[in-house]
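User: Here's a chain of 410 residues. Predict its fold as tokens.
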Amino acid sequence: MPRHSVPSPARVRRKRQRYVEKNGRCNVQHGNMQETYRYLTDIFTTLVDLNWRCSLFVFVMAYAVTWLFFGAIWYLIAYCRGDLDHLEDDKWTPCVNNVNGFISAFLFSIETETTIGYGHRVITDQCPVGTMLLLLQAILGSMVNAFMVGCMFVKISQPNKRAETLVFSKHAVISLRDDKLCLMFRVGDLRSSHIVGANMRAKLIKSKQTQEGEFIPLDQTDISVGFETGDDRLFLVSPLVISHEIDAHSPFWDMSQAQLEKEDFEIVVILEGMVEATGMTCQARSSYLGEEVLWGHRFSPMMCLAEGFFDVDYGAFHHTFEVDTPSCSARELSLAAARLDAHLYWSISSRLDEEPALTHEAANQPDSGSANSKGGEPTFNVGQMTDIQEQAGLGELNGSVATDQSESEA
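Assistant: Prediction complete.
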């Protein structure tokens, strides 16, 4: 029977639903909300948050409904006063000259609210009700203009459009940096105008079960990217590689390369700052799933020195290359380094303590080797100690032992 290859855990792992999309959009929808009236208490933000199709519809309808409403009132005044019955009477003073129907009343409403003033239709001084209505329409028209124009201006100048030119690398990488495992990703700004006071944050989104049995589906854990040292505050003039050192406080402390392929998590990165051109706060977001974190990779260089300036090649922004990286976790790597340091420390100190006693014994008992061999006791040779010390890398100590041995033989 033919043998079938067993798929790797990375392939059989169910694709995780993103909490934050690569373009920064939060993949969360609110449903079954009972207190929808709260949207009306902040109508300005509600209108700004609408999509462009709805915003343009509200913008047009706000003016059209206002013009129609006041146009109907102007027509109603002319009808009640009898102005429409005395259109050919030169001795009759109407409320508004040259208003002979609903269309003309509607046009007069548009001219009044937009302050066009063509001069053909004008209100007379024989209509106190019309004077009050004129004041009311002028005030309400100014409020509608301020509100709707303000909404459109804020929507056009929203700082989230500036975030479209802030780019994150497609993958995050894990490799050694200064003999420590680090999680790294790259961020860059495509515009010449800079982000002032740029600040970087990162979150680990992962399901969690507490000791009491409570299940938290989207638990958020901070990932330090230099908050303690101030490295999270960026001078984002050229692309930067953001590094998270995997230490004892990191959520990746016990994660090895094999465990990385099995874990189901998401890393959300957030860049905040003030737009230099407008002074408005901007936020750019992106995320990395477990399969988008490359173990044993490093980002390719993308900056070179040209004639009088630094040239940045954004074609290599997402490129990575493999480097030698241990597949064990950061904890295991730290324990191995600690054991190696302890072994070197104790071996050096024990050799230094034994050196004077062995040298003195070799000087007083030149024939102690044959005597001890007869009695069945173990023998010690200064030369053997020298070999051990040479294995430990103590070159200076070897010279001193050899000098003492030559003096004792003399």
